[in-house]
Amino acid sequence: MSNDKLTISAFQLFQMFPDEAAARTYLEGRRWPSGVCCPTCGSVERITTRGGKREGFYRCGSGCGEFTVRTGTIFERSHLSLRQWVIAMYLLVTARKGISSLQLSKELGCTQRTAWFALHRLREACGGELAKLAGIVEVDETYVGGKNRNKHARKQLKAGRGAVGKAAVLGLRQRGGEVRALHVQATDADTVHQAIHRHVEVGSELHTDEAATYSGIGGLFFGHDTINHGIGEYVRGNVTTNGIESVFAVMKRGIIGVYHHTSSKHLNRYAQEFAFRLNEGNCERHTLDRLDSLIRAAQGKRLTFKELTK
To answer: Which helix (H) or strand (E) element contains residue 264?
Structure first.
């Protein structure tokens, strides 16, 4: 199928959702394909509706009270309209390197602060417990943060070169499959090995570089082969880490060119966003399918402004 059949333009999106009612109907259909369901008790039989200005409000006859399609999702208690949320989700899944809060605020007609909060809510939806990777899994780590020499004198760390002052992201990519990216507090063997065991099925084949971090990861639980970058080796037979390094290339271009700076505090959500876009947001899938994946991921997730900024 040609790319033009897999993509809808922003103009087409606005035609699909000309008003709030269209966006609400769309989100309700995705969340409750078999009919409105109480998010608290799961009842579908004793649901009553409201009309007029209360359209979109439902009441559960089992005593759970009123609810809407926002209840129990990242949209709950948000000042943005549902139509604005649909547009924000569309922009997030179609922008390969991400979209800044400043740009999103212009697209939605809201403040930069509101757009920043909305983007972090969407990144929260991109995370969660996912299926383990299997088969051949490439593993590598990278470091995010400005170069020490480019910082103001009072912010420079006089502690050497390389990763000093930077935050680490561990990446795992299943050959021909999905990606996992997570911020790790350290890249010592214990931390990295625990992360690998959490995200990779026992019996899988790990491909890494020759860093001491990965020493001893093979044997009882995993197969393990390495590539030696130190001698200019990048591919040997089917052994390579080029796949996960290409993920890091996209992520770093997004952080440098779009976001410019990511704090260590929020880095894990940014990593989750890039991984989600490569998995569920893959451009080989139809735009509406990508949008549906993010809508599904938004359910059962909450992120308050207090939690985000504490």
So the answer is: none
